[in-house]
Structures are given as structure tokens and as C-alpha cells.
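User: Structure with guanosine-5',3'-tetraphosphate, C-alpha cells only please.
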Amino acid sequence: MNFQWYPGHMTKAKRQMQEDIKLIDLVIELVDARLPLSSRNPDIDELGKNKARLILLNKADLADEKANRLWKTWFQEQGFFVVELDARRKNSMKLIRDTIMESCREKIERDRRRGIQNRPIRAMVVGIPNVGKSTFINTFAGKAVARTGNKPGVTKGKQWIRLNKNVELLDTPGILWPKFDDQAVGMRLAFIDSMNDTLLNIDELSLELIRYLTEQYPGVLGERYQISEEAEAVNILEQIAQSRNCVRTGGETDYSKAAALLIEDFRSGRLGRITLELPAGSQQ
Ligand code: G4P
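Assistant:
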């Protein structure tokens, strides 16, 4: 399958991020908990060097709980602060505020030694498309926050959202694109909806998902669609089509409809909590 990118957008976004990153103390990077490594852009480590780093394992509600724990430990071992998150809910926001303070402890100490007090931590949110950046900013910032720097007479510049006296957030997230040499990784990014669907062959994608699920999560498809998993992927897709009435006028099986339905069931969590990659050396 051929994946297409938009080099113009990507270069512009990266250049913007290089500028923005100079202004901040902390990079809050969202990754998709179902695909935590492949949903990163490797440039972020270079861009964010010398900054405090917080990884949010977002959409953790859709990912395997055991895998979430493995990934949390894995990222912590790489020196990141990590929080598992469902960005649509407010319940982790205190934990995130506390973790931000912890991740910037060195900066706070340094400021104190220099006699600077109460300089807020400045942070920016980054991540690949669709990982939940806007959702997170909305939930985290809520309605009650003041947007600074947008008053008449104030130099037009960056918009900062004041979260509390300690933290300010750049209001536009940094978008980076995933990178991969491996088609299998591109495929998995497509499963989580981080590629443009119109560029994809949905039938092929669904067959790949069926292969992955029957191998790593046996029983999930059988139970959801009341079908037998003891078959080739294409036959499983056919069974799904039959079980969900995906037929064209004339009675022909509508594979594409079944494929789209399966992928939507996966994306929305209706197939249960599923993770698509584990840290090297871990067992599913
Ligand atoms: P982006 O800015 O990084 O591009 O992502 P955005 O916030 O637009 O989120 C993309 C989709 O992911 C949205 O769904 C959003 O609701 C969903 N989402 C974000 N965080 C989480 C999470 O932690 N868990 C789950 N389950 N979903 C999450 P959508 O269907 O595109 O939009 P909507 O119908 O929810 O508005």
C-alpha cells in the first residue's frame, strides 16, 4: 500500500515548532497508547532536547491495560515523565499538573537560586495528527482560563493559556507527522486513524487488522461477530459481511462495507481494549 505525505505542510510545521520550542520549558508530547512508538515523530527528541519532557499515553481507555503499564515503565526508563490519559475526561488533570511541577523541578530550583520567583512554567503540546492534542488542551485548560497576549495594544504574538499561577500553555499545539520505513507501521497508523483514509485501501487494511487480531487477541472477532476465526483473513471478512448484512443489491458480498465497519469498530473501542505494539522483548 502506498502512503502519501505532504512535505510542504510538514516542513512548515517543523520550522514553526523549532521556533516555538525556544520559548518553552516543557514539551508535553501526546502519543497514542495503542501505538506509542509508531505514533511518535522521531524528530521530537532532537527538537525537545534540553527541555523537560512529559509523555501522555493518550487514548489509554482504548488500549490494553497491561500494555499501558508496560509502556509507562518503558518511557520512564528512557527518562520521560509519563501519565496514562483519556484526554476527554478531567479526572487526570490534577495528576498532570503535579507531574508538570515535578518534571520542571530543576528549572524551579534554578530560578530560585537566581532569585527569580513564581515565573510560570511554559509548556507546549505536540503530537501527530488525531492523537488528541486539541481535546487535551480543551479539557486541561477548561473555560475558566485567561488567554494572555491577545489584548488590544499588546504586541501580537504567541497566545498563552494561563492554567494557574504556575503553568502557561501555548494555545496552538505543534503538529508533527509520524515517520516510518516499514509498511507494517504505516498500516498500524492507519488503524488508529492517523493517516488520511481517502488514500487507503480499506479492504487491505481490514485484512491486516484481522490477521493481527486473530493472532494477538484471539476470540475478539469471534465473539463480536459470532463467526469462526479458524479461516483465512479474507474468509473472516466475508463472515463479518454476512453477520452484519453487508450485501449489495443482487446479493453480492460488500467487502468494503464490512471492512469499513470492522475498522470503525476497532477505532471506537467496540472490539475492546487493544494495543498494536509492545516494547521490544515484552509478551502480549
Ligand atoms: P488532534 O488535535 O491531535 O488532531 O486530535 P483531536 O483532539 O481532534 O482528537 C481526535 C479524536 O480523538 C477526537 O474524536 C477525540 O474526541 C478523540 N480523542 C481524543 N482523546 C481521546 C482519548 O483519550 N480517548 C478516546 N477514546 N478518544 C479520544 P473524533 O471522533 O474525531 O471527534 P469527536 O466526535 O469526539 O468530536
